[in-house]
Automatic annotation (TrEMBL):
Domain of life of the native organism: Bacteria
Region (Disordered): 212-232
Keyword Ribonucleoprotein set for record: no
Lineage: Bacteria, Bacillati, Actinomycetota, Actinomycetes, Kitasatosporales
Stated name of the protein: 3-(Cis-5,6-dihydroxycyclohexa-1, 3-dien-1-yl)propanoate dehydrogenase
Length: 278
């Protein structure tokens, strides 16, 4: 294709086998980029490659984001395949199913903290470390998947919320440290119908957030956010990733998070949305 916002760019996306990572991979391809998707599950990655309209512009690498060596190999493989790296999308993550402090034992907290922070926070730092040298060469950028839980409470329990607040701090720190060569920004997504899993340490590795969406029926109350009827399809959250990855569209933007959460920050006291009667 021609005329896409990411024409000729090359991106590496962690957690690209499902959910928002897959949606971003497909959107980047549609915008003219080449994409390397990285994840733990080979079957899923293969599926994304198989479904791509132009398989010559997509490559898959099986790796765990907690392993620095594998991330370095993935960056090398991405550059070998597509000649350079313009964008790293740090995205792979796990949720804590809003498990509150009072519902967790000390032992559970101990195990789940290590697992959630290892994937959600260490996974982002290690990916940034593996990629920055290539990103400096292209004056590229990093886009991190953040969350409503990077700003507000109750999008997770204490572990997830703390991990996503940490990612916001990481995004800002790296924006400072890598400037002026590499821009670093975030997309703070709200609830999306994906396959987001929980930590193994809490026995939640096989539970998917999609089950909560499947349970919703016509009598389910809408989420208490201003845009309470907005889409939860991850494909509808990909625009800000394209914007932030595009040098032409966001060249002067760094250290910034775009909140894509239906307006949580402007919800009212009496009712979430002020215009329901309109
Ligand atoms: N779904 C939501 O409501 C929501 C809301 C806000 C933010 N997020 C964030 O979006 C990001 C993507 O999650 P998603 O909702 O698309 O879920 P998802 O489970 O569909 O996608 C996450 C992907 O990361 C992979 N992954 C997990 N741990 C990994 C590891 N250690 N190494 C390599 N790959 C690993 C998974 O296999 C999966 O393919 C996460 O950072 C999550 O916190 C999700």
């Amino acid at each position: 294709m021609t005329g896409g916002w990411l024409e000729g760019d090359a991106a590496l996306i962690t957690g690209g086998g499902s959910g928002i990572g897959r949606a971003v991979a497909e959107r980047f391809l549609a915008e003219g980029a080449s994409v390397t998707i990285l994840g733990r599950d080979k079957k899923r990655l293969d599926e994304v490659v198989r479904d791509a309209a132009d398989p010559s512009r997509i490559h898959a690498v099986v790796a765990d984001v907690r392993d620095s060596g594998s991330l370095h190999l993935a960056v090398a493989e991405a550059v070998d395949r597509f000649g350079k790296l313009d964008t790293l999308v740090a995205n792979a993550g796990v949720w804590d199913y809003q498990r509150q402090l009072t519902r967790l034992s000390g032992q559970e907290l101990n195990t789940a903290f290590d697992e959630i922070f290892a994937v959600n926070v260490k996974g982002y730092v290690l990916a940034a470390e593996a990629a920055w040298r290539e990103l400096v060469k292209t004056r590229g950028s990093i886009v991190m998947t953040l969350s409503n839980a990077s700003f507000y409470v109750n999008g997770g329990g204490p572990l997830y919320t703390a991990s996503k607040h940490a990612c916001l701090g990481l995004m800002r720190e790296l924006a400072y440290e890598l400037a002026p060569k590499v821009r670093v920004n975030g997309v703070a997504c709200g609830g999306m119908n994906t396959d987001l899993r929980g930590p193994q340490g809490l026995g939640l590795a096989d539970r998917s957030i999609s089950a909560s969406f499947a349970k919703q029926g016509p009598d389910t109350p809408p989420p208490p956010i201003p845009l309470h009827d907005s889409s939860t399809d991850p494909r509808d959250f990909t625009g800000p990733y394209v914007l932030l990855a595009s040098r032409a569209q966001s060249g002067p933007i760094t250290g910034h998070a775009i909140n894509v959460d239906g307006g949580i920050g402007v919800r009212g006291f009496a009712g979430a949305a002020g215009g329901d009667h309109l």
